[in-house]
């Protein structure tokens, strides 16, 4: 199972694309979140962009789904014909259709491919190709469903936005890779994760690797030395701060393969 970091930034970062992850197995592909700026990274990083099977929207904040009109319109331009599934919280179909209609009125009716929608709820399991998906509510002002993706004996967890909860901790238990929103270094920002809390979360889950994403832009710019020092202190899990285009392949229990594009 391969994870490509399409973007790793928070909502309004001037250097980083919005956090978005492309999950690929031999049989399936799933994009996790698609904010305003994510499509730019998707077209650059995805080897087979038109083969994307599904998109999961963790919550309805613009930096997590306002990229859908641009992504879908370009797919139309590129001649996509295969159906595309969009997954998200109850009401996802109406939200997505309204968003695309606002951006490009009438375009969906003329699209060259069909959209289908699947609603997701906390505690539910959904089978998508060879992937099994699970969900839990995080602590965020807008309800956000963290997601777990299992494929065979490999599993990853992505927090979406928000601090950890007992439910997200239970969902993450035993995952090989945790990708967690870590907005601030250690300050307690209501409704968001922190670097320290994410490290503690991944350790408790028994994960081998933790990727910190959605880091506040000034932390990335001005506190990078402190950030690197903090993560270097963690032996287990191994902590990384990925850049757009980086990827991780979860191979087996023996070890993962991290590839940095920078
Ligand atoms: Zn966000
Ligand atoms: Zn949010």
TrEMBL record:
One of its GO terms (molecular function) is 3'-tRNA processing endoribonuclease activity. SMART domains: Lactamase_B. Transmembrane segments: none annotated. It comes from the Bacteria. Residues 17-192 form the Metallo-beta-lactamase domain. It holds the Pfam family Anti-Pycsar_Apyc1. InterPro entries: Metallo-B-lactamas (IPR001279), RibonucZ/Hydroxyglut_hydro (IPR036866). This is Beta-lactamase domain-containing protein.
